[in-house]
Structures
1.
Amino acid sequence: MRRNLLATFVLSFVFSAAAISADLPPALSHMEALAGDEQRLAAAVRDFDRQQCRLAQWDMDLAEELAMAGDKDLAQETMERAKDRLTMVQQAYNYVLERYPDNGRALTYYAELLYDYQGDHAKAIMLWKKASALYPELSEPLNNLALHYCHTGDLSMGLAYFDKALKLEPNHPDYLFNLCQIYLTHFPEVAKRNKWSLKKVYRTAMKMSKKAAELSNEYELIQDYAVNFFAAQNFQLEADWREAARAWQWARQKARTTDEEFYTWLNEARVWIADGNKAKARECLDAALAIRPGNDVATNLLSKL
């Protein structure tokens, strides 16, 4: 589980009573053939979970856009489709857990569904702790518990869970990303807990951020690493702006859309402005404006140069 915020979206409805059933709906009847194979069944449900949650999130985003545009009926229809997707995922996990109640990964991922989309934090925490107790070598529930406690005010407990998760998987990019976010947003508490200076908190966070980006080689974590240079001022430090520029160039290589490419040009320009290099800043702003002609932010920055 990777997030900047604890939960991305919690639905305004509760799951219907049908979601409690451990029977598979017709759309999942093909999974009955896997019922006797615990590992294959759990893996198939996890794949189904990922697919349907992505689609449900897309439906929810679309429903929000439709509601803002005034099409309330279609927004409701789209939200109901998201609800149906998530209900099927819950039914699938119930089907697994009725047969294999101690499957650690099913417990972990089902708890994520409950936490994020049903808002049942108490049950999710109970399931993560059960999974961790049954399988001490399983890192995912530890990471999830770390996020929960850090975002609900028990930073010491959360950091202790992060320590355990990273001891098991020191090169897991999501865990490094999550812990870096905590360091950068709760730096006074982290400094006090670890008996570090604020400068050490920032430098440690940046090492984790860079390592996460290198391990994942994904746009999201690379651009997050690039963004984190701007946080140096919170720690009374001057950022390494040239390294920041290289980070934005690296992110641009991984950009998947023109919007992401524009974002890298715009922020690389900000980096060069901070470094005092107006010529390079102009080059970046010109490239940004070639993608989005007339963009107010890029135009204003260019005019200030």
2.
Amino acid sequence: PLIKEIAVPKKLREIDIVVSVPKLKTHELTGFTGAVKNMLGCVPGKMKRDVHVKAPTSRLMAEALCDVYSFVRPDFAVMDGVVGMQGSGPAAGEPAMTGLIAASADPVSLDAVVTHLLGYGEGEVLTTVRAHARGLGTGDLRMIEVVGETLEACRRPDFRKPSNRTKLL
């Protein structure tokens, strides 16, 4: 692991259930910001900057985010994608009217399903790949039961991913 320890806020240690509520958006370094990356928000200020310093590439950031996720694992996640972000997020992204709201007791599965709907290929979102490989959740679509709307009905083929992401691997 890149991140061997983090200072978890006291309040977070006192609660019974953690719910991650990520906004559906792109990110130039990680490709996608979902339920796994959202847990970086639990890391206090300066330590959050330290994570970015230790992980300047997509591959290293995926490892670091999975490290953080392993310390603060949400019990449930609800992703708000009614109006998400596409393109060069998070700083220069544009609104994406996806109309999606998705939820799961396995946040890694949530990220896997949503990125599939947005046109990301298998293995393209490294946080999902690494979280699955580390046993932090299920990132393989063949192993995920989807209820509600069909995947085909929810696909967003016109969604724009970050353009420069492959340069950062």
3.
Amino acid sequence: MTSYDTDLLVVGGGPGGLATALYARRQGRSVIVAEPRAHPIDKACGEGLMPGGLAELAELGVDPVGMPLRGIAYLDDRRRVAAEFRSGPGRGVRRTTLHDALASRAKELDTDWVSTKVTTVEQDQAGVTAAGIRARWLVAADGLHSAVRRAVGISAVPGTPRRYGLRRHYRTAAWSQFVEVHWSPHGEAYVTPVEPDLVGVAILSTRRPELSWFPTLADRLRGARCGPVRGCGPLRQVVSRRVAGRVLLVGDAAGYEDALTGEGISLAVRQAAAAVAAVVDDTPGSYERAWRRITRQYRLLTRTLVLAGAQRTVRPAIVPACALLPGVFGWAVDSLAI
């Protein structure tokens, strides 16, 4: 009889990995999380939780402290157009605060941890072995450049256009209950309130990001104390598949379109639920179909916006078009909020 150390080995202790652990523990499965980084884990991201993702976290018993988000606003130097979430508010949450809340809940549910980096994986029809741990299943949630993905032979290539992101916090009074997306000819700046006197600014571009591209925003932040810069990219990762035997990919490791629409955490939580359901039912192939269904709208809307924004003649018209078609803009915002 095969001996196992755990039912599920989760590689990666970020939001996607911890959500996977929580769903698995809720199903009564034993879980080990393999993560070499010290807690809490920080990362460059927009830090906005959409209403749907916030509701998913609440079902898992996770309620991170943050700032209410009523919707999303697009701005250029002359216009501002905003749309509220119809399903209720989202929340701006510091990445470290979110991680603490997820990790605390996972510990409450007796999740085990090992501090190790997984770079090699062996599997057979009965289980998976990695980092000296024998598990029935492995879920990889180890990021854009997943080592597990490479180890099991799943191909991934950077997509075009190649965009990168930088995030920095500014110590200043939060001035809006909306995620503000400031557009310039060179990139976008996402402004998310995460504490009453702290906002996160994430800039996405194909070039080295500069706050000076956004004069109105730069003026508002002038003189504010700022924290360290964190970066990531290239953002778009085209992944050939999400399942290899008894290994399933979740979150950024499963493929990533772009951070433009700001719903990465929400998608990762929903993918985690689908991956655990496939494991529990012993139908790993069903996860590939579920992943495509969960991410379809995000992939379509995000890709359309990124490609439109890549055109010099189209980019300056995006905010004016949203102002002229507020119903369409509201529909898009609400579609991404679920």
4.
Amino acid sequence: MAQSGQPPLIGLKVLDLSRIIAGPLCCQQLADMGADVLKVENPNTGDDSRNATKPWAGKDSHFFQAFNRNKKSIGLDFRDGEGKEILFKLLESADILVENFRPGVMSRYGLEYRSLQGRFPRLVYCSVSAYGETGSLSDRPGFDPVLQAESGLMSMTGEPDGPPLRHPVSIIDIMTALHSVGAIMAALWARQDTGQGQHIELALMDVAVAALSNAGQSFLLSGQQPKRAGNSHPLSTPTNLFRAKDGDLYMACASDRLFGKFCREVIDRPDLPEDPRFNSTSARFDNRPQLFEILNETFSTKTREEWLRKMRHLPAGSLQNFEEALSSEIVKERGMVTEVEHPLAGPIKLFGSPLNFSDTPVREFTAAPLLGSHTDEVMHEIGYGDAEIAALREVGTIN
């Protein structure tokens, strides 16, 4: 069915006062769904991630491109004076504000939720910090890998006989961003009945602890630390990376049903599910080295393509690098890599959105904005003339 509607969040206005990943990714998701997101940045340096590292898109880093598409940008020093008044004018029409300054910073400027609530009662105000706004660590800064270490998440990663390893992408920041979007949507839904906005507070530490999920629940019930399992799984077997004739594939056939189908229909070993060493989840786990030896020997006889053709009905796939994964047919078919025009770099590739609506599509993508590229447009919209804009730019209030 053809899509007939506009993006679902058309009409919502968002002020993005955040930097780096968690806040910007939250706002990018809102922008993808049609919200009008204005990124309010330091007029001199912008978001810290603009200057992160190569490769570059024009003057900005790949890092900045990853989390800031579909936004507008204004460079504004909103700490006091006319800059603060400009922020208040922007807040008059804003539905959502997202910030990730360290707790206490917004209070110093009189811009914390409590100070804004009376003047802007419908505002949904989302704060993201490392350890939350209350508690003994609230004053500490924190970045994703530190939280991976402190939350216990890192203790589960790595090979059984090796050191713990961090997840290579900022997984806690990413999960925090997605939790933020859900919370903001819930607050907007509640606003329909109450007419009131509210303050949403998320801590990376809280999200990291919640992400321990079933592994953490196992500890809460047993008191036993889950053991590191490398590419395998702390409990389910066979779930692991296996070596075929021409490379590696990954298989997750841990249930008795899937293991039985794999043995009977793929490797022609109907005896294995009947073997006392392998006839239950716990037995396979206890005898994992013997089972893995059998499976690696079997997989080494054919190529990955041959095996995966036979395993299409089972959860298994080829180990791929970025080039292989991002040029694969499924990524093309699902539109997960797209091309946009960047004002300085020309055509650049961006990731697509994983969100698919039957009638209200995500918006057509634009590249992340240059610093202050919408300053004049936004200032005109809130009533400033050219001479006033020039004067404010001269004193560094805007860029």
